[in-house]
Design a protein that fits this description.
Helix content: under 10%
Radius of gyration: 48 Å
Strand content: over 45%
Distance between the termini: 130 Å
Number of strands: 45
Largest sheet: 42 strands, mixed
Shape: rod-shaped
């Protein structure tokens, strides 16, 4: 009796008839009682015992001819011999059994046979049925003892076939059930093959394990190393839950939430581990290659959904990596996601193209200042929690994008090369910092940093280098004030203002298909620049500009500069004739200002003032008036030819004493409602459109030679209207001005001079411009005289 085991046997021996002959031996009757291993097991009673053998004293050999140890449920049959002729007896035994429970099998396994494998089996093999058990020995007894010599390759052969098996390879992980196992032992080598099994997780999710191999190359050494290979299949949420278990969470660092992930996974798993009841942390070495199909996870990166038709994930003790083509918030991208072991942050490499919709979803729409596709390369450190800092380094190719004042004065059409690099740090609930900004392309050079709040508004900005051209020397700072207004300060020696002028003059009308661009409603602007370059070689010197805007409305405006031949340029807010505020500008050199703004380059001299309603957040049309006195139009051949009468030497220029223009400004467009010019030898009327957004001028009108004398006929009551009216005269020549704003072309119709007064209307250029304000499609020119504005001022 030992350890609760009890043996009660009936033996008999038959002496030989001759001395030295073999003895006949046998065991019949009695019972063997094997104690249960756990409180859940029952004792195993073997009460059918029959053993027939003989012992040869000369050869010192015990032969077991037949052995049958059984009860009504199980039985073990054996045969073989034990050779005692040496000090280390040799055991040559074969045994076989069929259809017994795992519990009975563990009770029957002799303690001396392959002790390390026996110990592992007793602990990790939970339940099931042994369908087949065969064992054959051919080695000295010492080879089977703990600490004995190695078992030769042919010294031990074991085959165990089980079904419906429950096995728990790692104590802290869920067991594998319904497993089909085949265990083969050859010498000191042990191989356990798993055909198929199932892992049930606490949530009820399942993983399937197939083609598993558990191998112990040398089962006799202390804490023998083992190798494991298997294929795991199942839904991604089940795999995420498995990796998030207490035993694997630290090693895997899995970022997936089982509740928000989808897809199916097929993984090849390879493990190296010691057979050690007290396995230390980190003792398991593993390599996992997982292919995931139809993968999806919600709010994985920057609260965006990630999807992939196929994704490969690899993992080992140094960390894990996911790589493949994905869609992030609907945006196609190639990602390489790595999580090194021991690092709090994950590493991300991403290549993608951000279009307008994607930027809006990610919160980077820039209020319409950037449109079109932008290829990017991104490297990032992704925090394990939204409450921790995530850091990004981004390279953006802006070549195919359209830029409209992304920074003040920076405009760029598509297909013009430009690039941007910057770093960004953000985490949930705090402002986002964009640092190390470098923008370059087409002469633009900008370096600095920006801080943006959670609503996408600028909190602070600093650009020590802020240039729209290669020779610019300027800086820009912005800071959100306590009252919520953004204070922008710009300082510099030289600044190329041409891009800014174009952006102000040529801002297009809102596109109903795109989100309306959001402006800065509360702004304090303070600009001081030594020299601002404009068009046609003109410049402003000593520019000082201050502007205050609240709730989208201009509350303060002051402009001072020099231009032309030391002429002054001033701007301010005044009260107009109707009692409402207007923006008022005054220039002592009208020609220089018109050239600077690329409006019309052929005016020389003149004094000008202009008033205009301030812009509003709704971008409503702004009415205004422009008056220029004592100027000359020089270098306009068609006009000089009209003044010269069509023959002889042409005038070198045409003097005008006054020009009055009533206009309406809308985004990117000036509509000339009514323009009148007076001079000693020439007068004119004009209306039309200056479409800066479309880079197109369409004006038409009538020249009135000898304006003072010619216009007398129009002053005659009643008949005067038929003789040309009070703005023209009896004789006139119709004309049009067409082309780009910076270089328009004047064309005249000489035949109109033959038609006096009202008859001349027949020779006017067509009044048709598509999309002009208030004009039906197909009209080339808006008819100012049909408007209430023009009627009111007559």
């Amino acid at each position: 009796m030992s350890s609760g085991n009890r043996f009660t046997l009936v033996a008999h021996a038959e002496a030989p008839a001759q001395a030295g002959a073999p003895w006949r031996l046998g065991l019949t009757g009695g019972s063997i009682v094997l104690a249960p291993r756990t409180s859940d097991d029952e004792q195993l009673v073997l009460n059918r015992i029959a053993v027939i053998g003989r012992f040869d004293p000369v050869k010192r050999r015990l032969d077991i001819e037949h052995a049958d140890v059984a009860n009504k449920d199980i039985g073990v049959a054996a045969s073989g011999y034990v050779d005692f002729s040496t000090s280390d007896p040799r055991l040559v035994i074969g045994a076989a059994s069929r259809n017994m429970s795992i519990a009975a099998f563990k009770q029957l396994w002799p303690v001396f046979m392959n002790t390390p494998v026996r110990d592992w089996t007793l602990e990790h093999l939970v339940s099931g049925t042994v369908e087949k058990f065969e064992v054959a020995t051919n080695a000295n007894m010492s080879a089977f003892e703990k600490g004995g010599p190695p078992v030769p390759d042919d010294g031990l052969s074991v085959e165990i076939v089980t079904s419906g098996t429950v096995v728990r390879p790692v104590t802290e992980l869920p067991p594998i059930h319904d497993a089909d196992l085949i265990t083969r032992v050859s010498g000191k080598n042990v191989v356990i093959s798993l055909g198929r099994g199932i892992v049930d997780l606490p949530s009820g999710r399942r993983l399937t394990i197939a083609n598993g191999v558990f191998e112990i190359p040398d089962s006799q050494i202390k804490k023998p190393p083992a190798r494991v290979r298997m294929r795991i299949e199942g839904p991604v949420p089940a795999a995420a839950e498995f990796l998030a278990s207490d035993r694997l969470r630290e090693a895997s660092g899995s970022p997936l939430d089982p509740g928000s992930s989808k897809g199916t996974v097929t993984a090849q798993v390879a493990l190296n581990l010691p057979i050690d009841p007290d396995m230390p942390k980190g003792a398991v070495r593993y390599n996992i290659i997982a292919d995931i199909a139809n993968f999806a996870v919600d709010k994985f990166m920057m609260d965006q959904r990630i999807e992939a038709q196929s994704l490969r994930v690899t993992a080992d003790p140094d960390g894990y990596q996911a790589r493949g083509d994905v869609r992030i918030g609907g945006m196609p991208a190639m990602v390489d996601y790595r999580k090194p072991r021991g690092d709090v942050d994950a590493e991300l490499r991403l290549q993608a193209t951000f279009d307008d919709a994607t930027r809006s979803r990610f919160g980077f729409d820039f209020n319409g200042a950037l449109s079109g596709p932008v290829p990017i390369r991104l490297g990032a450190k992704i925090a394990s929690s939204p409450e921790l800092d995530s850091r990004f380094a981004i390279e953006a190719d802006l070549t195919q994008a359209k830029i409209d004042n992304l920074l003040p004065g920076w405009t760029k059409p598509p297909a013009k090369a430009a690039r941007a690099t910057f770093t960004m740090a953000s985490h949930k609930g705090t402002n986002t910092r964009i640092d190390d900004i470098v923008l370059d392309g087409g002469g633009v050079s900008v370096k600095g940093s920006v801080e943006i709040d959670q609503a996408g508004e600028v909190v602070a900005a600093s650009f020590p280098v802020f240039g729209m051209a290669s020779d610019d020397k300027a800086s820009l700072k912005a800071e959100r004030q306590s009252d919520g207004a953004l204070k922008v300060t710009m300082r510099g020696d030289v600044y190329d203002g041409r891009a800014f002028i174009k952006s102000v003059m040529g801002g297009g009308a809102p596109d109903p298909k795109q989100q309306q661009r959001k402006g800065i409603n509360d702004l304090d602007l303070d600009v001081k620049i030594g020299a601002v370059a404009g068009f046609h070689g003109e410049a402003l010197s000593g520019l000082e500009l201050r502007l205050q805007k609240r709730a989208g409305l201009i509350k303060g405006f002051v402009l001072n500069a020099k231009h032309g031949a030391d002429a002054s340029l001033k701007g301010e807010i005044r009260v107009g004739a109707n009692g409402r505020q207007v923006l008022f500008f005054e220039s002592k050199d009208a020609g220089a200002l018109l050239r600077f703004t690329d409006t019309y380059p052929r005016v020389v001299g003149g004094q000008m003032w202009a008033s205009m309603e301030p812009p509003t957040p709704s971008q409503a049309p702004q009415e205004g008036k422009l008056v220029v006195r004592d100027f000359e139009v020089r270098g306009e051949p068609a006009l000089e030819k009209v003044v010269g009468g069509g023959g002889g030497p042409q005038a070198s220029g045409v003097d005008f004493s006054k020009m009055v223009v009533d206009f309406i400004r809308s985004p990117g467009r000036f509509m000339v409602r009514d323009a009148r010019l007076q001079g000693p030898v020439m007068g004119a009327t004009m209306d039309g459109v200056l479409d800066y957004a479309g880079n197109d001028v369409r004006l038409r009108g009538t020249f009135v030679p000898l304006f003072g004398l010619n216009n007398i006929f129009g002053q005659i009551p009643i008949a005067g209207w038929f003789l040309g009216g009070d703005r023209e005269g009896l004789i006139g020549i119709t004309f049009e001005v067409v082309g780009p704003p910076g270089a328009p072309v004047l064309r005249v119709n000489p035949a109109s001079a033959l038609a006096p007064g009202v008859v001349r209307k027949i020779f006017e250029f067509p009044t048709s411009v598509p999309g002009a304000n208030g004009v039906a499609g197909g009209d080339r020119y808006p008819d100012a005289r049909a408007s209430s504005y023009a009627d009111r001022d007559r």
